[in-house]
Structures are given as structure tokens and as C-alpha cells.
Write a structure and sequence with these properties.
CATH architecture: 3-Layer(aba) Sandwich
Largest sheet: 6 strands, mixed
Number of strands: 6
CATH superfamily: Flavodoxin domain
Number of domains: 1
Distance between the termini: 29 Å
Helix content: 25-40%
CATH topology: Rossmann fold
Order of helices and strands: EHEHEEHEHEH
Mean pLDDT: 96
Number of helices: 5
CATH class: Alpha Beta
Radius of gyration: 16 Å
Length: about 200
Amino acid sequence: MTQPLKALALVCSLKPSPAPSSSALIAQQLLDELAGHGATGELVRVVDHDVKPGVEGDMGDGDAWPEIRRKIAAADILLISTPTWVGHMSSVAQRVLERLDAELSETDDEGRPAMFGKVGVTAVVGNEDGAHKITADLFQALNDIGFTVPAQGGTYWNGEAMKGGDYNDLDETPDAVESTNATLARNAIHLANLLRERQYPAS
């Protein structure tokens, strides 16, 4: 029997649990969408773990990244969800990308980069501009590392310019975000199934 697809959401909020987090909210909404297509999901708020700075797979001295990396290796779909800070992804998201850099030197038994065959998707929230640039930066990094990005594989919410308010303060999810979330999940599942059935060629 075919195992269900697995999705892992890395929430890159600066706020540790149990503080409310817009990045966690949109990530959970996407995991729920993916679950509607039969995927299992797990959410990890990265700042809750002692992820050391560096570009190695294991930086030692209690580094929490190796366990997170094992979860990534077991997943078919990786979601990076980040807030927007001064127009950029959070420092936590940047650290995740720096730690994923170690995967460039990892290969499977047939010589393919270790992240080949996995789908990468993104979510960005914030009450300032920057979502498109952050999405582009995340897509490029994930693609470099070996993830495959589906059509419309990024979702985001920006609050009204020059005003406060957060995504998790909204009374309901805007229709445009809800529709984009649904499309992202549908396309991510479609692509992950295709890659499971037909992996990239061996080197």
C-alpha cells in the first residue's frame, strides 16, 4: 500500500511558542489544505529549537538542526513560512536556508542531490511590503538546494500599507488568500505524486 505523502511546515516566526503567530496560522491552514488531499503534516516552529548558526549538517554542542533535518528528509513537501521584517524574510528563515546549504553536498544512493524529488512551497505574511521578493528569494534558494517548486507554489498576505494589524488578527481569511492556499496545496500534491512515481534521472 502506498504511504500517504508527508508535509513539513517550518515556521520561521521570531516568536517562540505559545505566542500567537501569523506565520504559524497560515502554515497550519496550508497543512489543513494538504490534509484534504490525503497528506499527513507536521508543524515545527524553528525558534523553539536551538538551531545553531552555520552551514554544516550538524554544528555540535546541542544543535537541534539534525533532528529537523531528519524530518525534512522524511517529508515529500517542505513549506517555509516566514513573517516580513523590514522588507525581508525573518532571520530565522535565513538561518534555515543557511543550514539547508549543507544539503548541496549530500547525495542519494544513485548520486542525485539529496533533496531531489521533494517539493518546496512558501508562505509569507506581514503588514509591510516585501512578500514577492521574499518568495522569489525562497524559491531560488529551495531550487538551488534541489527542491522542485510547483506552479503558484507561494502564498502570502500583506496588510494595508502604513497601518498595523496582523494576519492572525483577521476575523476571516481573505478570499484571495484562501483561493491561493487551495491552489498551492493542490499543485504541491500533484507534483509530489508525480515525483514519487518518476524521480529525476540519476547522475
